[in-house]
Structure formats: C-alpha cells, structure tokens
Amino acid sequence: MTYEEFCIQYALGTLDEDYLIKLCKNICKDKRILIALSKNKSHWVRWDVAENPNTPKEILIYLSKDPWEMVRIGIARNPKTPRKVLRRLLFDKSQYVKTEAEDRLRKKNKNSS
C-alpha cells in the first residue's frame, strides 16, 4: 500500500485496528505512515509503532510520554530510542518501564564499548 492509498483509507476509517497492527508489525518502513499511526487512538497500534525500529526519533520521544505503560515499554525496548529518553524512563512510575529502560541502556553501553 502506498502512502497516498494509506492516507485515503485511514481518513475514510476503512482500516481496522487489526490491519493497522499488522502494518506496524510487518516492519513498516514508511516513516510517514508511522508518524500518522503514532497518534492513533488505539494503544495497541501505538505500542507497535513504539517497537518498530523504523520509527523516527522525534516520534520515539513523543511516544515515550504516552499514558499507556505498554507504549512506554515499547519505547524502552526499541534499539533506536535515544539514550536521553532511556535515562528519563529510568524514573518512570512503572517498574516494568524502568527495567526495560535499564536493559536497553545496558545493551547500548555494551555495544558502544
């Protein structure tokens, strides 16, 4: 599906949540689609955008403040999440988010050594 086709179908509301989740899980590479889906009302869709390694940095930053815990866990798991965001997530109210952020920072530090 091209970006233009996606925009039309998305605006018409003809793409259901399951399709949008599959789109993200199939490693969508079109950053414009990921940007649009980052604001989707479904926290499941936002979670899959958060975990997608093709999600742009500015969207990772935006989603790191999502009210739903699983979206923030997805951000912490994403290898492209900036260290600054991961350090902020170390102080998240959710212990699960904190743990994932610690793990990702440890992996990033190990890979940069």
Task: Describe this structure as you would to a colleague.
It is built from 8 helices and no strands. By secondary structure, it is mainly α. It has one domain (3-112): Leucine-rich Repeat Variant. The N and C termini lie far apart (40 Å). The mean pLDDT is 93.
- Number of spatially distinct domains: 1
Please identify the top-level CATH class. Mainly Alpha
Mean pLDDT: 93
CATH hierarchy: architecture: Alpha Horseshoe
Helix content: 55-70%
- Which regions contain 5 or more consecutive residues with pLDDT less than 50? none
Order of helices and strands: HHHHHHHH
Structural class: mainly alpha
Specify Rg, calculated over alpha carbons. 14 Å
Name the CATH superfamily assignment.
Leucine-rich Repeat Variant
Q: Give the N-terminus to C-terminus distance in angstroms.
A: 40 Å
- Count of alpha/pi helices: 8
Q: If you consult CATH, what is the topology?
A: Leucine-rich Repeat Variant
How big a fraction of the residues is strand?
under 5%
Largest sheet: none
The number of E-state strands comes to: 0
Shape: elongated
List the helices and strands and how they pair.
Layout: H1 3-12, H2 17-25, H3 31-37, H4 43-51, H5 57-63, H6 69-77, H7 83-89, H8 95-112
Helix pairs in contact: 2-4, 4-6, 6-8, 7-8
Compose a concise summary of this entry:
The chain contains 8 helices and no strands. With 113 residues, it is mainly α. The chain has a single domain (3-112), classed as Alpha Horseshoe (Leucine-rich Repeat Variant).
Task: Please supply descriptive tags for the structure shown above.
mainly alpha, Leucine-rich Repeat Variant, elongated, 0% strand
